[in-house]
Design brief:
The protein has 416 residues and is mainly alpha-helical. It is 63% helix and 4% strand. The protein has 18 helices and six strands. The protein has helices at residues 4-8, 14-38, 59-77, 101-117, 123-127, 129-150, 168-174, 187-213, 220-238, 240-243, 247-251, 256-269, 271-279, 285-314, 340-343, 347-361, 372-396, 398-406; strands spanning 82-85, 96-99, 181-182, 185-186, 326-328, 334-336. The strands form three sheets. A two-stranded antiparallel sheet has the order 1-2. A two-stranded antiparallel sheet has the order 3-4. The chain has a two-stranded antiparallel ribbon with strand order 5-6. Helix 2 (14-38) crosses helix 7 and helix 9 packs parallel to helix 14. The radius of gyration is 22 Å and the shape is globular. Bound molecules: NADPH dihydro-nicotinamide-adenine-dinucleotide phosphate. NADPH dihydro-nicotinamide-adenine-dinucleotide phosphate (NDP) binds at residues 246-247, 302, 306, 309, 312-313, 333, 335-336, 341, 345-346, 348-349, 352, 377, 380, 384, 388, 391-392, 395. NADPH dihydro-nicotinamide-adenine-dinucleotide phosphate is lined by residues 246-247, 302, 306, 309, 312-313, 333, 335-336, 341, 345-346, 348-349, 352, 377, 380, 384, 388, 391-392, 395.
Length: 416
């Protein structure tokens, strides 16, 4: 079982913070979904709430969502693509993952295009966003409750050290088990990639509707947004092995918190495309070029810095990285102190922020709502940087403080 210290430690403000965060996530996602459907973007204008329960809950949406998620589970299980092991967990254990997210993305996108040509009304995906969201929340509530109880029967090494405090609500929220599995089927990983694929489906739905209803004119901003976001996701899935070592997959338990965060992706990340699709907003070609340059710069920083660290972690003696300065630590691992990782402690976050900013800029400056995602990412990455730094301080002790004196800035060189 987790140690006494581990059991006592609460994060995210403990049970009260967890409850507040649950409600906040739910409210924020409903707000996004409502705006995505209604196209009324004034953040300070109260949404016109339709109290007809059928606007919020529908059996067909629940069945549709479950069927779609079932397909994602099947796609993951197919012996397509290579398999790879995640990082070493407790007791030296490793989990094997099937790497076929790009294949799953292709199948989904071809599916929605085929559905359009077969006459399926694609706009039901957009028009039923609120019902789909309710279905998703119900699924998360049930799933996290079932997993909470099933954790009584799993081996100790599978438990989340931070999610077994003995406080039932908190543990349900944080997740008692790290990587619940049905045989080789990894639920957390499939939920995560389904969230991203769901985001792409929402984007494609907007694009298809715009093309089919667009009187021969599709807003250039919408096309650029969909292309930039699709490229980001293709790249993310191309380097799928890197996802296996990310914080969410390695350290987060599968409870309501993380499942709700994955569910938020399709409903909140598509807000900029929905904005452009509903308002028909277009910018000049020069503005679009400027936005694309910000995106390209962000992508370059994000990809190059992640590759540099990943290559270094895979083989610290790689001759191709011999030009980089490193710092030894008592743990035996070395830390990079030049190159991208000498500029600041999280150059990859900086790249991600520029990419996210470029999406928001595609919506102009008329409304604040499409900038919420960017603002949210700023807060998320600042918090993540703090938590990662705490984790590194635990791993590296005084060496980490020494490292922080050498690499002074957290995310933005010379500023933050
Ligand atoms: P990182 O990929 O930044 O990894 C952090 C780890 O890197 C540390 O724990 C440490 O682990 C290692 N490290 C830190 N500094 C150094 C150094 N100087 N030299 C060598 N190793 C170092 O963490 P995340 O999982 O948070 O992020 C992964 C990606 O996901 C990022 O690109 C991020 O931007 C992106 N992301 C995107 C989000 C979005 O919504 N768009 C949300 C969250 C993340 P160790 O030393 O043990 O190897």
């Amino acid at each position: 079982m987790p140690s006494q210290d581990e059991r006592k430690r609460f994060e995210m403000g403990g049970p009260v913070g967890a409850a507040a965060l649950s409600l906040f996530f739910i409210a924020l996602t409903y707000l996004n979904a409502e705006k995505n459907v209604s196209g009324e973007w004034d953040l300070f204008q109260m949404p016109k709430i339709n109290w007809d329960i059928r606007q919020w809950v529908s059996l067909s949406s629940l069945l549709g969502l479950l069927a779609w998620f079932g397909i994602q589970l099947v796609l993951y299980s197919l012996p397509i693509g290579k398999s790879a092991y995640g990082p070493v967990l407790k007791e030296g254990r490793k989990l094997e993952y099937q790497l076929n997210a790009l294949f799953a993305l292709d199948v989904n996108l071809l599916g929605i295009i085929a559905a359009f040509f077969l006459g399926f009304p694609i706009n039901v995906v957009i028009n039923n966003m609120l019902q789909l969201l309710t279905a998703g929340i119900l699924t998360c509530l049930v799933l996290s409750s079932v997993l909470y109880h099933l954790a009584d029967y799993v081996e100790d090494w599978r438990l989340n050290p931070r999610g077994n405090t003995g406080h039932s609500f908190y543990d349900w929220f944080i997740g008692r088990e790290l990587n619940p599995r049905l045989g080789s089927l990894d639920l957390k990983y499939v939920m995560f990639r389904s969230g991203i694929i769901g985001w792409m489906l929402m984007n494609f739905a907007s694009l298809i509707i715009a093309f089919s209803e667009g009187k021969n004119e599709v807003p250039s901003n919408l096309v650029l947004l969909v292309i930039m976001q699709l490229f980001y996701v293709i790249d993310y899935f191309w380097f799928e092995e890197g996802i296996l070592v990310s914080r969410d997959i390695v350290y987060e338990g599968l409870g309501f918190n993380i499942s709700m965060q994955f569910l938020m992706i399709p409903f909140t990340f598509c807000t900029q495309t929905r904005y452009v699709a509903t308002t028909g907003y277009t910018s000049s070609w020069m503005t679009l070029l400027g936005i694309f340059i910000i995106y390209g710069t962000g992508y370059w920083i994000y990809r190059a810095s992640n590759l540099e660290k990943n290559k270094f972690r895979q083989n610290p003696d790689d001759p191709a990285l011999a030009y980089l300065k490193t710092m030894p630590t008592e743990s035996g691992k070395r830390l990079l102190i030049s190159g991208w990782w000498g500029l600041c402690r999280h150059p990859n976050y900086l790249g991600d922020l520029l990419i996210s900013l470029s999406y928001a800029l595609c919506t102009g400056f008329q409304h604040f709502m499409p900038y919420l995602g960017f603002l949210f990412l700023v807060m998320l990455l600042i918090d993540r940087e703090n938590r990662d730094s705490e984790g590194c301080r635990e791993k590296y002790g005084k060496d980490w403080d020494k490292y922080c004196q050498i690499v002074k800035y957290k995310i933005i060189p010379f500023i933050y």
